[in-house]
Every structure is written in structure tokens, then in C-alpha cells.
Amino acid sequence: MPPQKEVDRSYRMILRLSSSSRPRRLLSLALLLTSSQAMALNNEDGNGLEQAVPKAENLQLDQPVIKELGPPMGTTESTETAEAPSENSESDEQQSLPQAENLQLDQPIGELEPTSVTKKEPGVKSTAEPAPSVQNPSTGTISIEVEKAKPLRLLGAEVPPATSTRLAWSPSQHFEGVYSPTAVLVVNGAKPGPVLCLTAAVHGDELNGVETVRRVMYDLDAEQLNGAVIGVPIVNLQGFHRSSRYLTDRRDLNRHFPGDPNGSSASRIANSFFHEVISHCDAVVDLHTGSFYRTNLPQLRGDLSNPKIVKMTKGFGSTVVLHSAGAKGTLRRAAVEAGIPTVTLEAGAPMVLDERSVSHSVKGIRTLLNQLGMVSKFRLWGDPEPVYYNSTWQRSSTGGIIFSEVQLGEFVRKGDLLGTVTNPITNVRTEIRSEHNGRVLGMALDQVVQPGFAAYHIGIQAPQEQISKPQEVISEAPSAEKVQVQSNKPVESATDSAAELQGDRN
Ligand SMILES: [Zn+2]
Predict the structure, then answer these.
(1) Is Isomerase among the key words of this record (predicted)?
(2) How confident is the model over 123-144, as a mean pLDDT?
(3) Are residues 341 and 414 in the same domain?
(4) What total number of domains does the chain contain?
(5) Cα(206) to centroid of ligand 1, in Å?
């Protein structure tokens, strides 16, 4: 950085020149400022002063701003598109919205972009053009399948069919006047179909979902997609910035859905997200990880009393499924209550990224896209059968340092040693042994625990129809043989779970 050196030198020089009299010193300071500014600009690239820079908006700073609740636009968008939605939001919903820029989401941003665009162009024409033109006039009676995809209206923009874009959702304007917009990736397919939404980092410290959403979204081809996929990699940006599960006010965003426009800060954020994004979805996958130093085998949680959700779980391929309606205030439960089938996909631990969890999640979502008829290119699991489990938690009866003897995904028998808890003061060591024949679906990372800490989440495989709420399972402990026999027939579990276990270890 040569400018700094030059500035320092000129500053020293000016100080020397400006001996002691005050007015002269002020003058030299002014000189210094102008000279350093000019230097900085000139050093940019030689023509910094001449280059056209957009003029900043002239704000009436002495006038209070009344309100501007129009949905904020993407950060990269030009000023004209950013202003348009607020005007339009006042009037009819059906009025034309600014068209979102078509980005090549399946191509990484960077030097590769120009070549990838030109490469795509020919393929785009050949696949997209014939479909609507051939089908529309030819069929008069069978018109449902032939229907052309519609533009997707979301967050103050219109995303035309066969395009991909990045929009932004902003929960509120902070009092500092700073927006913290959250990226919303949209791929609107060339052909009609459902709108699948992927949400991650509702808990800001859960990172695997962020990467999962990125991989899924940036691999979609709008030309080949039926329906649309909306991906929100980081819902809780506040928590994400601080590596925290919570919002800045220590509230858990995932206990405040569907939210309240007049409620607490968390409630307002939840309400905004629910109405601006979730209400546009036909189905939602909410990505999470274990919480508080626990890790989870990739697993789905869903209300299996809802047939639509059962159908959704079957779309994920060979993945563990647990039944739970979801706590009140969770995004999942609120969405289901609003008629939008939703599952939670849990994988891995908070604060860390692990490849095994991410790749399993990506594979599961791609299989779902395939099963929903939205894409055809992903065929990843030969026999995509989910594996259903009842489950129970085994807790530590004492406090101390826990070390595990089992690994995530391991099959255990009743009486097997799961881990030990040693009191660092008294050196008293206690063992936690499995009370069931089952599988380790979730477990504590090695750490200091208090008595009562839920350390091992043991799954007991069962047919989907026999899955109950996790709490009801505790008293039943079928023998090893029984578990195998019971589960093999209805869900063809032996091969599936073996394959899955292998996949997990890869
Ligand atoms: Zn979570």
C-alpha cells in the first residue's frame, strides 16, 4: 500500500512547514486531507477521479421517514428495480412486478461465468422452445400436463419460468437504518410443478444445512426443472453472524412461527419470513443439526399421522425417519398447520460442517426432487426406501466427563456399553448401557455433562404404521431377533439400513 507511506511523508512535511501558528496548522491539515484523498483516488487505477460514480440519493435528513414496508430487493439489483416493488405493493397484487435477473445458479460465480453462459445458450434453446409451442396448440383436451409454467411472484419480484435468480428477504429495518437482507435463491423451472422450499440455519449455528442448500440450488437447471425450488441458506442471519443458535435477543426463532406482526422481535421476524417466503411453498424441508454438542445421524422428523408427510418422507430414499409433530412454534409445525407439508432434516452437529452429513442430505433432497417429478436426472438410491424408527433418549444419571464407546449410526444391543461418565473430582466412573436393541441415531459429543443430560438417542426400527411418538416407546424393548424380523418385512430394512450405514461412514 504505497499511498499510506506517501501520506505519512507529506503529513510530516506539512507538520514541519506549519511551525507553530494555529491558522497555518489548520490550513496544512486541510491541505493534508485534500492531498491524501486525491492520492487515494488516483492510486485506484489512474482514472479514479474521472470515472462516473452513481450519485447518492439526496435525503431530507431533517424530515422523518414515514415508512417503507415494501419488500426489499436483492442487494445486487440496480436502483430502479429496488424502488419498483414498494410502489407496486400499494396497489393490486396482480400488477406487473419487476422481472428478476436470470442468473446461472448452476454455474459458480467467477471467471468461469462468461464461458458457462455461452456454453448454456444453445442447450437452452433446444430444450425450452419446442416444449410450449408444440404442446399448446396440438392438444385441446389433455391440457393439464401441457400447461406452461407461470412466473413465480416472490419478494417483490417476478421470476419468469426457466430462470434462476437471487432475491433478498429482510425481516425488518433495524433502528440503525441498516438492512440485513437474507439471500433467497430461486430456480423457477421451464415446466409447471410444485414449489419446494429449502430452509437452513433457522438456528444460526447449524451449518450443514447452509452448505446443503448451496449444493442443491447451484446444481439445478431451470430448463430441466418442473416447478420451482426456493432455497434460503441462512434464515437466522443474526444468529449466524454470532455463531449462535438464537436471535440477538436470545430468543429461539424456531419457537415463534408463524409469528405475529405486532409481537416480539422474534415473532415479527418469524411472521415476515412465514408470509414472505413460506406461504409460497407447496412443501418445505427445514434443515437442522443436533443441538448443544450433540450430533445426529441424518434423519427426517415429520408428523407421520399426516399422509402427505408420510409421502414426503418416502421421497427421501434410504433415510432414517422419526415421528414427531414438532414443538409448538417450530417452522415445521406452523407450516403443516397452514397446510404445507413440511419435514425437518437433521444431520450432524452444530458449529461444524461435516461432509458425511452434507452429502447424505444433498442426496436425500435430490432423491425427493426426483420422487416429486421435479427433476429426472437424479437417480441415486436404487431402492429408495426410508427406514422408520421409534426412539428414546438415554440420559446420564451422573455428572462428569462423558466419553462414548459407540459411534453414530452404530447398531447396539441391550446392555451394550454406550459411554462412560467420570467425575473429575471424585474419580467415580459410571457407565451408560443401552436399554434397547436399536441404533444410535443421535449422541452427545465428548464433553462435560450434568446429571440428566440426554446423551444417546436410540432408535428402534419399526414399520411406518407402528411408529409412535418418541416418549411412548420407552417401556417396549423387543429382543434383537424381534427387531430384525419386525422391520425386515415391511420396510425391507436389512439391506437399506446396511447400505445407509455404509453411506454414513463414507
Ligand atoms: Zn436446529
Answers:
(1) no
(2) 36
(3) no
(4) 3
(5) 6
Same domain, 308 and 278: yes
- Exposure string of 67-97, with b = 16+ CB inside 10 Å and e = fewer, is eeebbbbbeebeeebbbbbbebeeeeeeeeb
Q: What share of the chain in percent tops pLDDT 70?
A: 62
> What's the CA-to-centroid distance between 257 and ligand 1, angstroms?
14
Amino acid at 143: S
Q: Return the exposure string of 35-51: e unless at least 16 CB atoms fall within 10 Å of the residue's CB, then b.
A: ebeeeebeeeeeeeeee
- Please count the residues of the chain: 506
Residue 415 Cα to ligand 1 middle (Å): 31
Whole-Å CA distances, 184 to 164, 228, 357, 449: 11, 13, 23, 38
pLDDT tens, position by position, 31-64: 333 333 333 333 444 444 456 777 776 666 666 5
Q: How far is the CA of 333 from the centre of ligand 1 (A)?
A: 14
Rg (CA), the chain: 28
Q: Which of 31-45, 58-72, 75-89, 474-488 has the highest mean pLDDT?
A: 58-72
How far away, in angstroms, is 255 Cα from ligand 1 center?
A: 11
Taking the centre of ligand 1 as the mean of its atom positions, its distance from the CA of residue 58, in whole angstroms, is 43
Q: What is residue 72's predicted lDDT score, i.e. its pLDDT?
A: 40
Residues 477, 354 within the same domain: no
